[in-house]
Here is the input.
Amino acid sequence: MKKTLFLFFICVLGSQLSAQSEDFKSIITVSTFSPFRDQRYNIGYMHKVSERWWLGAEVGYGCEGITPFNHNDFKGKFNMFEIRPEVFYSLNPDSRLKHLVSAEVFYLNHKGDNVNGNYYDENDNYYSFSSADYKRTKAGLNINYSIMLHKESSWFGFMPKIGFGIRQTDISYNNVMNREEGYEPTDGLPFQFLLNREGSTVRFNFNIDIKLIFKF
Here is the structure.
């Protein structure tokens, strides 16, 4: 049902933007990476406030079964919410290709209730468990570079984006039941093991995405 509503939103959006002027001032963005990498859908809005400056924000939401892949190291119901306010500066506003640098702050809240699976505790011991309440929060700052790939007369385009920054992550497991020490995995995606390490960490953050853009 949620996937159907998302596709319906995209179709309605496309029909509303079919006849827009070349001097667009607003953009809706849809992340192509987040459903596969981050287990959520991220949709944003950008508004041009002057020749060089844009203001924007992005929100993301995910829950069990809404995206194609599950990278959690546990099974059970979860939900996550993310918000990303951002300020953009156009390096060459007269160019057909818009080169933008931006600064964004972000906050993510990820919860799982009565989940089961595996995790690392703060002493780096690896455990399996039959039930626990999971919570992950993440906050940080990125400096990004983006380029808009589009035709001036078209309402649609792409926006590759890359950035670097810093983030603080806090992960906790509460009400853990039937915890047993086990053998840690030797395969898996590199970022997967960051999602189930209990404790608070400050790390370098790398940001990459390709966004669909809808201009109006």
